[in-house]
Amino acid sequence: QTHTQTHSHYFLTGCSFTYGMGVSDEQTFAWRLQQAFPGYRITNGGGPAYSTVHALLQLRELIEAGSPPDHFILCYLSFHDERNALTLRQRQHFQNAFENAERSARHSY
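^ thats the sequence. predicted structure below, dont judge the formating
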């Protein structure tokens, strides 16, 4: 049995790996899936530092908006569990990242 590809919506979610941090749009695996399967609608819902909690919130928003995808794909990595719990190590990581961003955003006048 063949599946009808038209109108099938795949929503990918996950962290910066899914998002494609550091690569062009054309290099993300969501883009490559879209190119390989043009009859499907592929949405890249990944984001830097996302976890499974973010995925749950995204799915809830899609359902509440009346536009749930046909397929919701969570690209899971084991360190997402640490992000969900916001452990001390994770808090320190975020603090360092924010401090570095703040320093690099400052301009000398």
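The first strand starts at residue 8 and ends at 14.
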